[in-house]
Amino acid sequence: MNSDMTTQRTITKRPANERGQADHGWLQARFTFSFAEYFDPNHMGFQTLRVMNNDTIQPGGGFPTHPHSDMEIFTYVIEGELAHKDSMGNGSTIAAGDLQYMSAGSGVYHSEFNPSDQNRTHMYQVWLRPNEKGGEPRYAEKRLGDSAAANALTLLFSGDGRDGSTAIRQNAEIHFGRLDAGAELEVPANTRRPHAWIQVISGEVDALGESLGQADGLAIENEPGAFTIKASADAKFLLFRLS
After folding, report:
1. Which residues of the chain have pLDDT under 70?
2. How far apart (Å, rounded) are the C-alpha atoms in residues 211 and 111?
3. List of residues 6+ apart from 128 with CB closer than 8 A
């Protein structure tokens, strides 16, 4: 952990190999924060970020219909496909590189399955606490695929839905980052959202004096100013800006 006493900035790395884990045969899961049977009082979430699960679903496996309420749920498919059905009437298959958003609101039921009988599904599922309870459930998909701009941040979700992003029930931003080896980008200052989390999907990046590899996370508290992310290998990552 690095600390800057002037700005009270705190940086904490969450190494991939220190995460919680579970193996259910059809599902291999790694937990950045406490979830289900994995409990660690030192890792209960970060700001409004509550769940960061890195799941591998074997062919034909999946989560049967189950309920959620009062949670913003985001799914990013890294490899394979994910079939989704919910009580709002939505039913579709999310391909690798694409994302799904569900605001559970006052309550929703859904199921998630790997539709393939040969290939695994590798994905992240992320939960954010909403800024209000209740409300009608919402659903949206982001067809990102391989179209994300190189050496840039793509804003996917935001509290106000600006710049083509999908509006969510939280004062937060979720960006997708893609960097070529040796490239870098500046993350703009954000005084309304001075906390950030970087989750590396693939490759290697450096940020604020920390080196991050695949599935590593970095918590950044009280950093309203700009900072730089540089790739030491081709990299993809998610960047969360949180209030």
Report:
1. 1-7
2. 36
3. 48, 49, 50, 71, 72, 74, 168, 170, 172
Q: What is the rounded distance in angstroms from the CA atom of residue 167 to the CA atom of residue 9?
A: 28
- Residue 101 φ then ψ, to 5°: -130, 135
| Model pLDDT for residues 31-82, shown as the tens digit of each residue | 999 999 999 999 999 999 999 999 999 999 999 999 999 999 999 999 999 9
CA distances from 174 to 67, 155, 235 (A): 24, 6, 17
Name the token pair of 5: 């006493």
Residue pair 156/206 in contact (Cβ under 8 Å)? The answer is no
DSSP state of 46: B
Tokens standing for residue 16: 């991939």
Count of CA atoms in the C-beta half-sphere (13 A) of 32: 27
SS3 of residue 17 by DSSP: helix
> How far apart are the C-alpha atoms of 202 and 186, rounded to whole Å?
19
Report d(CA 36, CA 125) in Å as an integer.
Answer: 14
Q: Provide, for the chain, the percentages of residues in helix, strand and coil under a 3-state DSSP scheme, each rounded to the nearest 5.
A: 0, 55, 40
Q: Look-up: residue for tokens 């937060």? A: 172
| Domains recognised in the chain with CATH numbers | 2-242 (2.60.120.10)
Q: Residue 175 and residue 127: Cα distance in Å, rounded? A: 15
Q: Report which of 166, 203, 202, 210 is spatially closest to residue 74, judged by C-alpha positions.
A: 166
